Amino acid sequence: MKTKKLIKRARQVSHPFRITKGKDFRLKDIDPDDTLEFNKDEHKPRAEEALAMGVAALAEFQDKLYAQDKWAVLLIFQAMDAAGKDGAIKHVMSGVNPQGCQVYSFKSPSSEDLDHDFLWRCMKCLPNRGQIGIFNRSYYEEVLVVRVHRAFLEKQKLPPKLMRKNIWKDRFEDIRNFEQYLTRNGVIVRKFFLHVSKKEQKRRFLERIDNPVKNWKFSSNDAAERDYWDDYMKAYEEMIQETATKDSPWYVVPADNKWFTRVVVGAAIIDALAELKLAYPKVDDRKLKELAAARQKLEKK
Ligand code: ATP
Ligand code: MG
Fold first, then answer.
1. Which of 76, 117, 138, 145 to mutate to test the pocket of ligand 1 (most atoms within 8 A of CB)?
2. Strand-pair partners of 133
3. How far is CA 167 from the centre of its chain?
């Protein structure tokens, strides 16, 4: 497929799930089992083929991004456990040059993290120009797990006066401003919520218990979090309503079918990179002369 056609296709596949204005967003409008027009059995191989092409296109875009050394790309992944974050990251980035890519996972904050403002640990991990940075979880945990379990907030050593009822609104505003700041500095931000259903999560947890190769992935705490499912969904919905913007959109990606999740994520990244109109840097006259002189010298010996 020609690059132009691929970009057009990437748009068709990713735009149905892209949220640029949060106001009217409702989580119930996106079905975790959706696979667009790809019929599951019939089209899965075709979707996988599309993914392979997408991976090749991504590698080419990334090469230009690196050579140009102007833009940086930040991809944020958020999801409930077993929604397939790790797999999506692995597959989508499988073709790219490791030198142009950085992945960070954000777990429970350390005591050093808790001694700082909530963006601090993520700011330290922002991608360099020319690079794609991936956050496996991020500062968005600050309005998700921290909101669902208030005990985390208590541990954050905030002055009591600032622990107002409005603290989540404050955080949404801070996040919006932070992402706008990044955008204005040449860091492109794209955010992915892998939307898995509670039923499919249960199936995947059971598989982790039944399959010895997957046992290591299972933590009983993950299963315990299911009791808070509705609270999480409410927190996700409001987070998206409050932080989806034109410049840093959320993609709410159906995640009950892993192959489809990967196709949509890959397509969204291709769309984002295509928008940058990347090109290899052009050399100036001086550089051209330098190249010609080098050629002459090489040919002599
Ligand atoms: P895996 O796919 O391996 O399970 P994971 O991202 O779920 O990956 P875990 O070590 O299982 O990694 O979990 C990390 C935990 O850290 C999550 O439960 C997450 O909610 C929690 N966490 C992340 N950021 C924060 C934060 N700022 N405050 C409190 N908890 C956080
Ligand atoms: Mg986990």
1. 145
2. 74, 102
3. 25
Q: Cα of 251 to ligand 1 centre, how many Å?
A: 20
Residue numbers of the domain that contains 227: 3-300
Alpha-carbon span 67 to 185, nearest angstrom = 18
- Give the number of the atom of ligand 1 that is nearest the alpha carbon of residue 118: 27
Which of 106, 137, 175 to probe ligand 1 with, by most ligand atoms within 8 A of CB?
137
Rounded CA-CA distance 197/256 in Å is 7
Nearest atom in ligand 1 to 105's CA: 6
Reference 150, options 168, 137, 136, 135; nearest CA is 168
From the CA of 114, the nearest ligand is: 1
Which protein residue has the closest C-alpha to ligand 1 atom 3?
Answer: 217
Neighbours of ion ligand 2 (CB under 5 A): 81
Per-residue pLDDT of the chain (301 residues; tens, 9 = 90+): 688 888 999 999 999 999 999 999 999 999 999 999 887 666 677 777 777 778 888 999 999 999 999 999 999 999 999 999 999 999 888 889 999 999 999 999 999 999 999 999 999 999 999 999 999 999 999 999 999 999 999 999 999 999 998 999 999 999 999 999 999 999 999 999 999 999 999 999 999 999 999 999 999 898 999 999 999 999 999 999 999 999 999 999 999 999 999 999 999 999 999 999 999 999 999 999 999 999 999 999 8
- Residue 93 to residue 61: CA distance in whole angstroms: 12
Q: How far is the CA of 111 from the centre of ligand 2 (A)?
A: 20
Quote the number of domains for the chain.
1
Q: Assign 108 to helix, strand or coil.
A: coil
Q: Whose CA is nearest to atom 10 of ligand 1?
A: 107
